[in-house]
Amino acid sequence: MQLTHIEHNNIDLQKWNTCIKNACNSLVYAESWYLDIVSPSWEALILGDYEYVMPLPVKRKFGIPFLVQPPLTQQLGVFSKNIIEDNMIEQFIKEIPYRSYHLNFNEQNPLRKGALQPNFVLNLNKDEQTIISKYSTNTKRNIKKARQSNIEIKTDLSAKEFLTFYCSTKKNYPVDPEAKVKKLIEESFKREKATLYGAYNVKNELVSTLCLLHSPQRLIYLLPVSNEEGKERLAMFGMVDKIIQDYLNSNFLLDFYGSNVKSIARFYESFGAEINYYYTIKHWSINDWITRFCFWK
């Protein structure tokens, strides 16, 4: 089979989405609608008649094309319904048509030379007693405190309510990623690809929110945010516990989106989540070179 580089406008989106939907390692990040939001000019490497595919998130700086992992997109890489061998992944990497790239491959794309990155997942295909037995003592205590503070968890937020709270609370996003957050929430909500959780105080005021993004075989914990009252009332502990209760005995993994920050990793692990690694590769990263140039200048 021939491996071909295809530019954005020439990708057969129907065949692409069929491949992603049926892939053994299917992820919502690789669906065409998602890529259109986070990387509007994305291209692709395709083997055969869309039997194996790899999205190429292309950006340009000073007119120079390069590949960089898009925001809100933890893992990409090679997707297929067939077994993906190590040499197949290496073949795709060799055919990347740009010199500069910094990419995350998915958990089922092991790379011998890739840097390991932690992701945390919790298998929800268990009964309540088994899952709760894995909660840390501190997490059980914090869930109890959240309940005692009269926090009510709801799942009927509109996209507008979520975004209003998120954008008024989260202050460290530059303009472009914030615009992508808005498009992503609106589109995923419209496509019924997301459940928006909210924690309310006794005055029925939002104090915490998160987006639970629906991906084949997994539920992705995305964009959690709390105001000061939400943090004080430990609302996020209550929301994660509510998600787990809602999807007990299902075939989903709860995907916490991973973190290298120790305090955040401890929060995920306190619910019994286990580490799954994905892989990062970098070659002539244009962002690194620009940073060095500006520093020495």
Describe the strand arrangement of the main beta sheet, using strand numbers.
4-5-6-13-7-12-11-10-9-8
Q: What is the count of helical runs? A: 11
Task: Calculate the mean pLDDT score and round it.
Answer: 91
- Distance separating the two termini: 48 Å
- The ordered string of helix (H) and strand (E) elements is EHHEEEEHEEHHEHHEEEHHEHEH
Global morphology: globular
Number of strands: 13
CATH architecture of the largest domain: 3-Layer(aba) Sandwich
Top CATH class of the largest domain: Alpha Beta
What structural class do the secondary elements suggest? alpha+beta
Q: Radius of gyration over alpha carbons?
A: 20 Å
Query: Which range best describes the helical content: under 10%, 10-25%, 25-40%, 40-55%, 55-70% or over 70%?
Result: 25-40%
- Measured by DSSP, the beta-strand proportion falls in 25-35%
Count of discrete structural domains: 2
Which spans have pLDDT < 50 for at least 5 consecutive residues? 290-297
Major beta sheet summary: 10 strands, mixed
CATH topology of the largest domain: Aminopeptidase
